What does this fold into?
Amino acid sequence: MSAGAPLLDVTGLAAGYGPIEVLHGLDFQVAAGEIVVILGANGAGKTTTMRALSGLIPRRGQATFAGSALSTRPDAVLRAGIAHVPQGRGTFTDLTVEENLMCGAFIRKGSVDDDLAHWFSVFPRLEERRDQRAGSLSGGEQQMLAIARAMMSRPKLLLCDEPSLGLAPLITKELFEVLEQASRSDGLALLIVEQNANLALAIADRAYVLETGRIVAQGTGAELLADDTVKQAYLGVG
It folds into this structure.
């Protein structure tokens, strides 16, 4: 975690769907190079938080990123340096693996060959299937593709919504190792929503717990791993 002002600073975040208010004034921060995890039961507002930050739904409150007001337009959010890996992966199923990756780099100028080669080296299975349609990949391969595609924009902050959803434990472990490595080695900030609380908290610098659209607990990953209430509610410890 870096010193100084946070990379992402959110105050009073409120959002919902039509007349249904889901988030009720969230305050949280993410520093440059920091891994922050959001935990909560289904319906707590985790995915809504991600969608609000990336501009997919209207939001209220204040949000600054890298010292400037964060736009509410998805394209401007991406250009500012925030990439979003949505729940359910969201690959372009009719495009090939390589075409998906090139879509992730559409805001970039100049050659992206080095980045393409890098992510093919990180996920060799994607290179083996570079000419294969994304819709024909396994769930784990599609999640690898979704992460690599987002990283092709070279973001400062990556929003990951349930990266382990529906994946085998070994694939999940591999993905979390890649995410942690990108943060620790390259200074990427991560904001992760995850049901696998044990795995997420093990790599987290800090974490927040959401309940019915409000933050009810926060602390370091180690602190929340040791918190009896959190363990009972989210870690399967009775």
